[in-house]
Design goal:
The complex is a heterodimer of chains A (about 350) and B (about 325). Chain A contains 10 helices and 13 strands. Chain A is an alpha/beta fold. In chain A, helix 1 packs across helix 9, helix 5 packs antiparallel against helix 10 and helix 7 crosses helix 10. The longest helix of chain A has 25 residues. Chain A starts with a strand and ends in a 5-residue tail after the last helix. Chain B is of the alpha/beta class and about 325 residues long. Chain B is about 35% helix and about 15% strand. Chain B is built from 10 helices and 12 strands. In chain B, the strands form 3 sheets. A 7-stranded parallel β-sheet of chain B has the order 3-2-1-4-5-6-11, with helices on both faces. A 3-stranded mixed β-sheet of chain B has the order 8-9-12. The C terminus of chain B is likely disordered. Classes of the chains: A alpha/beta (about 350), B alpha/beta (about 325). The interface between A and B is medium-sized, with 19 and 26 residues.
């Protein structure tokens, strides 16, 4: 399997790591910066480097192309890769405009190639565990989901706080929040399905913010469940919290740390349920915190573990002839939700 | 000579600007768009070009009419990727703007971090072996090695006169502590290997070396380590630091005991956590050596240009540990 990664920036490192860990993948890299491409090739033992993606596609004819460049370039690069006959995995957001996604979808369908948008946190260890519980019926029916990102986008070192090198998302109508809407959308949709209606309130709480908005509270209604999507730059410490309410269980996750705590209905007298859940929570928190520390010390992917898992599942499905881990309908549902969230922006 | 200085609002860059002005050069500083310069003492004596090496506006206008570039800017904070992007990709942008500019000489501020600290036998000089396993070191070493490689390839291809300086530990007012001395533990300084010689260069001496090398015909195409001397022992600096900083005192810590501890810690970590384990730098043998290894640090090549440090160790101490209110203004953003 020959894989080309276009873009050698920060997130690309996870793709290189995931691909080379598979052992039998021939990886090449393309970046407009020759030294960035050379550095990636040197560090990960990649076979070849390119600075021109069209030349790379013509010469290498890769089976799969991963697009990890800044978001505005995603549609054009994905289109070129599909035209060349490659399957394509694109970092989120796959397109800045819904119409661009629809055009890509049509092309992928016409070419009979896979087209995936990276929903990395959906493939993180705690999310995989909860999705398994839901699928096997243990969790019961999901009735409500809360997804909340607490991230200090104004702090020193944040890509959104440097006035000298503004993040591309800052120029978008949703400001920095544009960079997080896809995460919020796919994590809700994977549990509640396609939405029927959306209400959202975008706010700018920090007057010094370089972003037009730095807070969001949205309510999403689907056929059988609802979701609340939130973003705040003010709450500390940083966290990426997902709480899933089911008819038999409740799951609390922090996807930055890959921790999971489950509340459940226990057999026996109901007054003891809080006790069992408390003991279970204490054990889960201790195990999760220790696991998070061990993951960091062992150099394994932590918050980016989902990228590695998605890359592994994609490669495995391609080799075995299975279905892609993310379908075109999934991506369409997520991008329609993002579109409808953005439609709620104040004029 | 008109010299463009990158990183001019940084710790070393500010002193480099002063040293170049002292030698009669015309100085243009490249500073980020949001940088505040109003409290810098030399602001009225320099030309100011606004730009960011990492991206944004074209850098070519900043290079118009420039004879030489003192490339001091580097990203010293952040994770390895941030350091690589800030230092190496920034340098790549600078180099891409050079053709047609008239710049004849590029002076690159590199670092002792580029050396393989396992290899030297007794002394570390400009002919010592460069790090062969950079990804086992730290993001700064990786960035500096790639930055040097990039500049050398460009200089060879474009016939640019490249001068590389590799300073030792740069110290001075606002940067009084030197990691190579040891560890600060509450009211005490633990001095690692107290009789080791330190590869020190005071910021004002280092800046003077930059100005000397930039204007020296004999420096053309050369690489120079920058040390004031290697006569200062770790215990001397540690004790001066403790006394002048109001700490209780200092204690010696054997170098080889620390190295043994680092080997033990990394061995246990490898066993328990696998080959990609991570530990604090001081517990990794390769980083421990780069910080504390006992070597001689000759500066004969730099002195061969006719340079000698203008300030001796005693006066550098006085310049660094000034009473409150007499310090150098460091408030401008960089």
């Amino acid at each position: 399997m020959k894989v080309a990664v276009v873009g050698a920036g920060r997130i690309a490192l996870e793709h290189f790591g995931a691909l080379t860990a598979l052992g039998d993948v021939d990886v090449v890299v393309c970046d407009r910066s020759p030294v960035a491409a050379a550095h990636a090739a040197d560090r990960f033992g990649l076979r070849a480097t390119y600075v021109d993606s069209d030349e790379m596609l013509r010469f290498e004819r890769p089976d799969v192309v991963h697009v990890t460049t800044p978001a505005p370039s995603h549609p054009a690069l994905a289109r070129a890769a599909l035209e060349s006959g490659a399957h394509v995995l694109v970092e989120k957001p796959i397109a800045m405009e819904y119409a661009d996604w629809v055009a890509l979808r049509e092309l992928a369908t016409e070419k009979q190639r896979w087209l995936l948008e990276d929903y990395s946190y959906q493939f993180s260890p705690p999310m995989s565990r909860v999705l398994s519980l839901v699928e096997e019926g243990t969790f019961g029916d999901v009735v409500h989901v809360e997804v909340m990102i607490c991230l200090d986008i104004h702090g020193e070192g944040s890509g959104f706080s440097d006035p000298n090198l503004p993040h591309p998302a800052l120029a978008l109508p949703g400001g920095a929040l544009s960079d997080f809407l896809t995460h919020l959308a796919y994590l809700a949709r994977v549990f509640i399905g396609d939405h029927r209606s959306v209400t959202a309130r975008f706010e700018r709480r920090d007057e010094g913010s370089l972003s037009r908005f730095d807070a969001l509270h949205a309510h999403v209604v689907a056929e059988k469940a609802t979701a609340d999507l939130m973003f705040t730059a003010a709450s500390r410490p940083d966290g990426f919290f997902v709480t899933v309410h089911g008819t038999r269980m409740r799951a609390h996750m922090n996807l930055f740390e890959n921790t999971l705590r489950l509340d459940r209905v226990w057999p026996g007298p109901s007054p003891l349920t809080p006790l069992w859940n408390g003991l279970s929570a204490a054990f889960s928190e201790a195990r999760g915190s220790l696991g998070s520390l061990v993951t960091k010390l062992s150099g394994k992917p932590g918050a980016t573990a989902g990228v590695w898992e998605l890359v592994r599942r994609t490669q495995e499905a391609l080799r075995r002839g299975g279905d892609p881990p993310i379908s075109l309908d999934d991506i369409d549902g997520v991008n329609r939700l993002v579109r409808d969230l953005l439609a709620e922006l104040p004029s | 000579m008109r010299v463009l200085v990158t990183g001019a609002t940084g710790f070393l860059g500010k002193a480099v600007v002063s040293a170049l002005l002292d030698r009669g050069h015309t100085v243009r500083v490249l500073v980020r768009p949001s940088a505040r310069l109003d409290r810098l003492e030399w602001v009225s004596k320099v030309e100011v070009a606004r730009g960011d090496l990492r991206g944004g506006a074209d850098l070519a206008p900043a290079l118009e009419g420039v004879d030489a570039v003192a490339h001091v800017a580097a990203q010293v904070l952040g994770d390895p990727m941030a350091q690589f992007q800030g230092t190496v990709l920034g340098t790549e942008r600078l180099l891409s703007a050079l053709p047609g500019s008239g710049v004849r000489r590029l002076l690159l501020l590199s670092s002792l971090s580029v050396y393989d600290w396992r290899a030297p036998r007794g002394r570390l000089d400009e002919d010592s072996v460069l790090e062969q396993a950079p990804y086992e070191r730290d993001g700064y070493a990786v960035a500096k090695l790639w930055q040097e490689r990039l500049c050398r390839e460009y200089a060879e291809k474009e016939s640019l006169d490249l001068v590389v300086l590799r300073p030792g530990f740069i110290w001075g007012s606002t940067r009084e502590w030197i990691d190579g001395v040891g560890i600060q533990a509450g009211p005490l300084v633990l001095v690692n290997g107290p009789f080791r010689r330190l590869p020190l260069t005071h910021v004002d001496n280092c800046a003077d070396a930059v100005a000397e090398a930039l204007g020296s015909e004999a420096a053309a195409g050369g690489t120079f380590n920058v040390f004031d001397s290697d006569e200062t022992r770790a215990w001397r600096y540690g004790s001066e630091f403790a006394r002048r900083s109001g700490l209780a005192g200092w204690l010696p810590f054997p170098y080889h005991a620390g190295l043994l501890l680092a080997y033990l810690a990394s061995g246990v970590a490898r066993l328990l956590l696998g080959p990609r384990y991570r530990l604090p730098g001081i517990l990794l043998p390769q980083r421990y050596r780069a910080r504390f290894r006992s070597l001689r640090f000759p500066n004969a090549r730099l002195r061969g240009l006719g340079w000698s440090p203008p300030h001796d160790f005693g006066s550098c101490l006085e310049r660094t540990f000034q009473p409150p209110g007499k310090g150098t203004d460091e408030s401008a953003s960089g």
